[in-house]
Design brief:
protease, single chain, Muramoyl-pentapeptide Carboxypeptidase, domain 2, DD-CPase-like, 246 residues, carboxypeptidase, D-alanyl-D-alanine carboxypeptidase family protein, 4-stranded antiparallel beta sheet, alpha+beta
Length: 246
């Protein structure tokens, strides 16, 4: 039995880390980064998320039509965007569409703002419609571990206005479960506090997901299953167990 402490998990993968005004980033660790689109080498994401975003865009037939607008941001860059938007647009607009520095998913490397290709693109509110190739991307996104993070009907929960362009990598099966239950990340963590969730993947493998508030999480492969644990940055761990992996 290998026991992982929260501090150990915080320095590993952060797929399910909750980041918002109530749950700021615990540190300024910079993930391993890569560009999802070689045409925009300056726009980066966490490497695994970057590879899967590229694969999803290809599967949707969106190469050259779906373009990245903003990915990983340093704390200084997020602060500059906050200050500039506050100066130009005022407090109400800024608080609705720009996360407070230190509380932005962009600082994790797991978030990406996307746009439908156009001669001019609004950096803060890029156009990413629900039809056409963008609609195809949305339908495929959960299969690649992505969710539309800030939906209009979840504003009271997330504290952020609808952002149809902002996608967050949470991984599979979590994106599939969030889509199935119609929940945002905050609600997903709450749901896992109440019950274990089960998901059957396309290959037939079953996955079990639960949450615990224990200070340690076990990772035991003696039963032939594979377990994975992430700190959720909300005082708990998300435990995922896959069956049928050889």
């Amino acid at each position: 039995m290998k026991v992982l402490t929260c501090s150990e998990l915080e320095t590993s993968r952060r797929d399910l880390m909750l980041v918002n005004r109530s749950h700021p980033l615990p540190d300024s660790t910079v993930p391993e980064l890569a560009a999802p689109d070689p045409a925009y080498p300056e726009i980066l994401m966490e490497r695994r998320a970057s590879l899967l975003l590229s694969a999803c865009i290809r599967a949707a037939g969106g190469e050259g039509q779906i373009i990245p607008v903003s990915g990983w941001r340093s704390h200084a860059e997020q602060q500059a965007i906050w200050d500039d938007t506050m100066k130009k647009e005022g407090p109400s607009f800024t608080r609705s569409y720009v996360a407070y520095p230190g509380c932005s998913e962009h600082e994790t490397g797991l978030a990406i703002d996307l746009a439908l290709a156009a001669p001019e693109i609004d950096f803060i509110r890029p156009n990413f419609p629900y039809d056409g190739v963008c609609g195809s991307f949305r339908r495929l996104a959960p299969r690649y571990g992505f969710v539309e993070r800030y939906r209009a009907d979840k504003q009271a929960v997330t504290g952020i206005a609808a952002e149809p362009w902002h996608f967050r990598y949470v991984g599979v099966p979590h994106a599939l479960l969030m889509e199935h239950y119609g929940v945002c990340l905050e609600e997903y963590l709450d749901l896992l506090c109440r019950q274990e969730l089960t998901c059957t993947l396309e290959n037939g493998r079953k996955v079990y997901v639960s949450r615990t508030d224990d200070h340690t999480a076990g990772q035991n492969t003696s039963d032939g299953c594979v377990r994975q644990a992430f700190c959720d940055n909300a005082g708990g761990f998300i435990l995922t167990r896959w069956e049928g992996i050889v």
